[in-house]
Input
Amino acid sequence: MSRTAGFCFFILLSIAILPRPLWAQFKEDQGKGWRLGEAVVSKWQAGIVVKAVAGACRNMVGTAPLPRDWPEQQVEIVEEDFSPGVTVQYRTVDNLVDQMVVKIPSLPNGREAHALVTVEVRRHVQLPPPDTTIFRITDKLPADVRVFLGPSPKIESRDPKIMEQAKTLIAQGSTDWEKLRSIYNFVREHVKYKSGAPLRGAVYALKEGVGDCEDMTSLFVALCRAAGVPARTVWVPGHCYGEFYLVDDEGRGYWFPCQLAGSEAFGEMPDPRPILQKGDNFRSPVNSRERVRYLAESLTGGGLGGQPQVQFIRKQLAN
Output
């Protein structure tokens, strides 16, 4: 995932398998797309701890992302732990990320304030659709899907070499599903996985043939967008993967997951890690003119000669 969010490595979760009746109730909503499999449940804590150093601090505003509901994931806040005087509001950004917004009006020198939220996440694995031949590429896209056709930071979908490669790959395959599969296969075969490499992005991964999960996902997303197929990044703890958008024979749209780094998974997702956020082109909460791949934690404010010493919390708790 992004360098502000952690390195690309795999984390084992302590998970609890939910009984089949609990997840089965969601299966009817999936139409002809991917299907819901078994779910896992985990608890996560997110938030901010701030200490005033070398003087008092005032008017501090912090943000921290929280997992949110998706068709394959349900999230419930189970505990809130806020210091006196600290206020917290919740907001949704671009219908892709839930954030807690923490306001600390004043903090005397040497004092500490915190805002911590614990959530319970039920994440279903995603099973492949029963019939992939019915799905097709379309240019009749909702506005909230069309935004995933443009470039993003390190996803250079309008680069000439990206566009040329996308044109070649999308011409392959007898069905639109197989056309997208050709892009997926190309990225996995062309790019050699290298853990811990600096983020270089789609153009670098195409040219040099090396990258980590972010680079590989960036290249897949860029090639899809260059071919006229909406695609985006999905962020989970320590990892990321891609999603692409197709419609069925009745015109209903679906986001299908695919894992570029790690075990092969196209149109399905066996990884049950909680989804932190989806998307890869956000306005920075610190510098509104900057676009960022991942909406990470932030803190602004201070003043009165003091320096806020901040610790951002994002960790799994024992069930």
Remarks:
- The radius of gyration is 21 Å.
- The longest strand covers residues 35-53.
